[in-house]
UniProtKB/TrEMBL annotation:
GO molecular function: 6-phospho-beta-glucosidase activity
EC code: 3.2.1.86
InterPro entries noted in UniProt: GH, GH_1_N_CS, Glyco_hydro_1, Glyco_hydro_1_AS
Entry annotation: catalytic residues: E365 (nucleophile)
Family designation: Belongs to the glycosyl hydrolase 1 family.
Top EC class for this record: hydrolase
Record keywords: Glycosidase, Hydrolase
Protein name: 6-phospho-beta-glucosidase
Key word Ribonucleoprotein present: no
Keyword Hydrolase belongs to the record: yes
PROSITE patterns: GLYCOSYL_HYDROL_F1_1 (PS00572), GLYCOSYL_HYDROL_F1_2 (PS00653)
Species of origin: Breznakia pachnodae
Amino acid sequence: MEIKKGFLWGGSTAANQYEGAYLADGKGLSIADVEMGSEHGVPREIHDEVKEGKYYPSHEGVDFYHRYKEDIALFAEMGFTCFRLSINWPRIFPNGDEETPNEAGLAFYDKVFDELLKYGIEPVVTLSHYETPLYLVHKYGSWRSRELIPFFKKFCEVVFKRYKNKVKYWLTFNEINETLNQKQPYHQAGIVFKDEQENRIQTKFIACHNMFVASAKAVIIGHEINPDFKIGCMLQYPTTYPATCEPEDVFAARLHLLPDYYCSDVMCYGYYSNTCTALQKRWGGHVEVSDKDAEILLKGKVDFISFSYYFSSTAHINEEGNLVVKNDNPYLKRTDWDWPIDPLGLRIGLNELYDRYQLPLFIVENGLGAIDKVEMDGSIQDDYRIDYLASHIEAMKDAIMIDDVDVMGYACWGPIDIISVGTGEMRKRYGFIYVDKDDDGNGTLQRKKKKSFDWYKKVIKTNGADTSNKE
């Protein structure tokens, strides 16, 4: 079965994991630039400044900054019709609160977008993807403060005007719901809790509200600059099953999804739903929404929902009455990183989101992180990646063709190997293109096609009709 014409096929990246050139051409420091590499299961060490002799993986990434033409040519060879990337906020405003943007940073993205458009590839641009200017964290406390709202609005206005004829698809905040789900929402909101007396729950709610208002203002001004802009939110969607059919476990699965719906309800409905107010009560937080903010949220609703999906979870209520979420589903196979492989979970998630919001959906992250082996002949036989992606694409097709879910496109995570956001490692590889670099930052950065490269090329050429692993 073939998907509707105009469906967007491609891949997704983030500047902090891909771009490198961390101080080139006037760029300021982002929150990623003071985050060291680590090992699987070990939290990354975060510093207040760059320290001599320490390894910060984002400083080089895999050097897209200097190799963008080579990489985009490879994406074009696969047949990409879209490519998701982020604009590195401190590349445009080095500190984040300047009056005047950095022209060299703006010129870089002009070149990237021009190169993409040369091949007929639609840029899909994330405005904030874990690259909050570090200066805003130190001076203002990051998204704890409403003062970041006008800074973000100005950043958006500058790039919207600059690229209004080059970029149509925009995402505001990457995986915004993880601001509530993470103990330390550093990547999402630039927040590190150092004061033991700080009310962390309340801080998360306030940070989310400030980001909601900032996102809504971006949507409003974006539509004023170019009414053809399509501006979406971006979620991490955790399809969740009850661990058993015991009613308490069924309710536990709902509880696990509440923080995620909290964010999407506000951004899609334009107001705080009962789901939102119920979560505030449950967690012991509260957000005062002024009449002005309420007006902005309603006017600044998103046009579509983009989301990441990697695996599903199970939930239950333990003997103490607490919510317990695990990824230990015994019916599912697992990845090298012990993540369950659940393609049907993607179809379920698509249906849940579309049933709830009736907005177009865009899968902008889905992929398999694995340890790839370069064979003696130089080839990389990543059949496991092909199997994973094929099964998920087939599940997506079922959602589209059987369930009548409106899906705009599919952009797998990491079409080229990039550093891991969780650890900064290179050995957790997602790409169709291998990059010669190791976990310590050593390597030539040479690009090499994996077996999956030609497979994805075939999938795109047939518009999803042929996902088989055959020559």
